[in-house]
Amino acid sequence: MPTIHIQEVGRVKETKKSIAKITGLTQCMIGQLMRLSDHARGIVVGFSRGEAVVFLLGRIEEVRIGDLAYSLMEPFTIPVGEGFLGRVVNALAEPIDGKGFIGEVGHGEYPVFRKAPGVLQRVPITRTFETGVFIVDATIPIGKGQRELIIGDRMTGKTSICMDALLNQKGKGVVCIYCCVGRTYTSLLKAIETFKETGALGYTIVVAAHAASPSGEQYLVPYTACALGEYFMDHGRDVFVVFDDLTKHAWVYRQLSLLLERPPGRDAYPGDIFYLHSQLMERAGQYSPEFGGGSMTFFPIVDTLHGDVTGYIPSNLISMTDGQIYMNTSLFNSGFRPAIDLGLSVSRIGNKVQSPVMRELTAMLRLEYMRYNELLKIARFRTNVSGQTDQRLREGEVLTQLFLQINGEPHPVARQIIFLYALRRKILLTMPATEIDYFKKNIYDFAQRKYPDVIDELVGKMEWTPQLRRRLDECFFEFFMERGVVIKSLESSR
Ligand code: ATP
Ligand code: MG
Q1: Long-range CB contacts (< 8 A, 24+ apart) of 460-464?
Q2: Is residue 491 scored above 80 in pLDDT?
Q3: Of all protein residues, whose CA lies closest to atom 16 belonging to ligand 1?
Q4: Domains of the chain, start order
Q5: Which of 86, 101, 304, 375 has the fewest beta carbons closer than 10 A?
Q6: Ligand 2 center–CA 372 separation, angstroms
Q7: Ligand 1 atom 12, closest CA
Q8: Pairing of the two strands 40-48 and 323-327
């Protein structure tokens, strides 16, 4: 057991829900940990009239007025290390999955509120972060070390996109962290269950403060998740963190601030909420090779009300991330899932993180899709459209059908490239929807079975060669031959 050096002793003067005021401390500092009872802790967040104000953590009902409060005179730190993989912990990094003590020691402790890496420690983002969501990887490519906001109304598939990205990291050596902030207990359990079923828990840490946890813990939990990730990043690993979701985080902080009688600002949020979130987002990034070359990729989730992206918290977060994936309710309801609105979604890192093959195949895709959507609106009112327009509409239709993807089934890159190549070869244009569906479902397995060399090459080298194209053509030809469909363009290229 580590020894504890108590430096100062104060007394609880007042408690108000999950906040306490403590007198008698002359030297304590903001961000430090207080020990209030065996199972209750506090984190100092400010001072008023000679009292220290603390957010209570742990068993807050044990704290009574008049209790002694022990100040440890050090910044709030948590243990970190490999032992956390596969575990569920709370905001204090204590296990809550009933699997007992997280044994591994010797990795030291990390401060929860650590300073973000400086400019000289970082390098530009150049490596792809594969989400496995076809529409994202093809049109909004994400890089390792990027912060991509997932924004949208309630029930639009925000969590599902992040879960898919997380499941897609299987076998890729990426450490994943799912940080639950203020979600219901059942939705947390559902997420954990999904990780267990899919085998993702082995490379994942769940850091949770659900809706019934003390507000102080909900406030703290994203920083804990960050600190746990930083350990791996410092050791040259790639880390992926999902914050589900920061709207709740802002709410909790607003609640706590109002209880503290701090002056409310816009939408009654305290003025420092911007600082709070930007400080968090800064901690993502890509380390330079001298610092180990590790990275942290963030997917913060934020809720909007009736699609309003100009709300205070959403617009703050848009300004401090490298892009956003906007989920649209009407698209979701119309069955276009994942319901990503390509008009409002961007990745400011851009296609430089894509492999040459992906870059070539997706160069105009986003534009084509947007043009198709515009065309669709006009074509609805006109009955006689030109042949060229008809062709464009048909291409758009096929593209839309390829973009549809059920959650829980991330697509490997090779599968995405096969889809994109089929699109470029225009072989799906003449086919009915059922045939395209059959193609979507089976072509990858078929290629794996009959053309494993093609898949290996797509995964390994990711370079376009005439030989590779020819082999893919052959693969398509054989696939459709089995279905009794002969494609003219493929026939002529044989
Ligand atoms: P909340 O606002 O409650 O957090 P959310 O925006 O995170 O919701 P999800 O929980 O991810 O949304 O998804 C809502 C529902 O939509 C779920 O039942 C999920 O299974 C379904 N769903 C999400 N994505 C897809 C998809 N690509 N295909 C089919 N169903 C989907
Ligand atoms: Mg959700």
Answers
A1: 462/355, 462/356, 462/357, 462/358, 462/413, 463/356, 463/357, 464/356, 464/357, 464/360
A2: no
A3: 157
A4: 8-74 (2.40.30.20), 79-353 (3.40.50.300), 360-493 (1.20.150.20)
A5: 101
A6: 30
A7: 157
A8: unpaired
Amino acid at 125: I
Rounded to two decimals, the pTM is 0.94
| Cis peptide bond N-terminal to 473, omega within 30 | no
Give me the amino acid identity at 416. Q
- Ligand 2 centroid vs 302 CA: distance in angstroms? 9
- Show the CA angle centred on residue 348, arms to residues 347 and 350, nearest 5°: 75
Give the residue carrying structure tokens 């600190």: 227
Q: Would you please indicate which residues are annotated as catalytic (active-site) residues?
A: 348
* Residue of minimum CA distance from atom 9 in ligand 1: 157
pLDDT at 104: 62
The ligand whose atoms approach the alpha carbon of 336 most closely is: 1
- Minimum-distance ligand 1 atom for the alpha carbon of 337: 27
**What mean pLDDT comes out for the span 299-304?**
97
Which residues partner with 177 through β-bridges? 205, 241
Pairing relation of β-strands 295-303 and 285-286? Answer: antiparallel
For the ranges 28-32, 108-112, 448-452, the maximum mean pLDDT occurs at 448-452
The total of other beta-carbon atoms located within 10 Å of residue 290's CB is 9
Predicted local distance difference test score (pLDDT) of residue 1: 55
Cα first-last separation, the chain: 72
Cα dihedral sign for 70, 71, 77, 81?
negative
pLDDT at 16 exceeding the cut of 80 = yes
Q: Helices 246-259 and 312-319 sit at what angle, rounded to 10 degrees? A: 120
Q: Which residues line ligand 1 (CB under 6 A)?
A: 152, 154-160, 337-338, 405-407
CA distance 375 to 100: 59
Question: What number of residues does the chain have?
Answer: 494
